[in-house]
Hints:
Blueprint: E1 4-5, H1 16-28, H2 38-56, E2 65-68, H3 71-85, E3 92-96, H4 101-112, E4 116-120, H5 130-136, E5 141-145, H6 159-166, E6 172-176, H7 188-191, E7 195-199, E8 210-214, H8 229-232, H9 240-277, E9 283-284, E10 295-299, H10 305-314, E11 317-318, H11 334-339, E12 350-354, H12 361-379
Parallel strand pairs: 1-11, 3-4, 3-5, 5-6, 6-7
Antiparallel strand pairs: 2-8, 7-8, 9-10, 10-12
Helix pairs in contact: 1-9, 2-9, 3-4, 5-6, 9-12, 10-12
Amino acid sequence: MKPIYFDHAATTPVHPEVVQAMLPVLENVFGNPSSVHHFGRQARKVIDEARETLASSIGANEKEIVLTGGGTESNNLAIIGTALKHQSRGKHIITTAIEHHASLHAAEFLEKQGFDVTYLPVDESGRVSSEEIRRNLREDTILVSVMFVNNETGILQPIREIGEILRDHQAYFFTDAVQAYGAVPIDVEELGVDLLSVSAHKIYGPKGIGFLYVREGTLIQPLQQGGEQERKRRAGTENTAAARGFQKAVELLMIERKERNETYRSYKRLFLQILKDEGISYSLNGDQQYAVPGIVNISFPGIHVEAFLTNLDLSNVAASSGSACTAGSVDPSHVLAAMFDSDDLRTRNSVRFSFGLDNQEEDIREGATRVAQIVRRLTS
């Protein structure tokens, strides 16, 4: 039975062209990018070229890009680093109840340090209200953190509207764009964001590298003690080969984004149509007019997510109940609990399917058929 991977929101396979781009660096470029000799300069050139590509992809300046170990580190550096640096101006932070745990746990850490955090709710659409942001702003608000696209539902948040609200306020605006990067065009100037995080392994790049955009003039407190890498914002020797792979993944993304999204959109339509044709009862979580093409979160009445995921795995179909970082947990989704209610059955019978480059139309047909068979078996 052919394995079918419908969990691209958790991670993606490394693109073959990314592997090929990394190999010469792994084999030949071993110098420390901070060294002044030839070997160091050779590595520094790779880092600089990657940084320029990453910056141009979001309309930023290369000096505004901080290379990190991935999305979690980027989120922590943005939230904790900004809060600690500017706490003399206030200790109030606004975020949402549906953020990735990398952001939520950073906010909870700050609460223990004496910060006041407001966690805004969302409605059944899966979106936070920009007016709720406005209503909860205070003179001592120093940071607003709202993710761009929710990783469990694929629902876009009103980032541009929030950016407009904050333009004349002292609060810095951070958005976790890990799931948005690649799904939607991003221009940091148009959005009005001050900080933005991205991770390479969501876009067919290597794991262990990401970046944090930090608008010029925005000061953050480093969270790691060590050298003066990344303009003193993130200590540690840069991962040269991963930076080259990240660059190649972004280059491919910029060329193929429209085509990829059209393909994913067609896969989602086909997947849902087959479930309908098979007579499967289901509902979609979140307002689909705001959904990115590659992610769909589906509620199947009468099933329990743990048994469902086990049966999917036995049928060689990979899917998820939400964030991969909590995939081992049987607790109800905090995102769906925020959208509905903690007692709502949809928090316990919903599964996320996310499509990607290694899927083919026959995978969608076969995968949807296997899903339908499992639902019938579990609800019979």
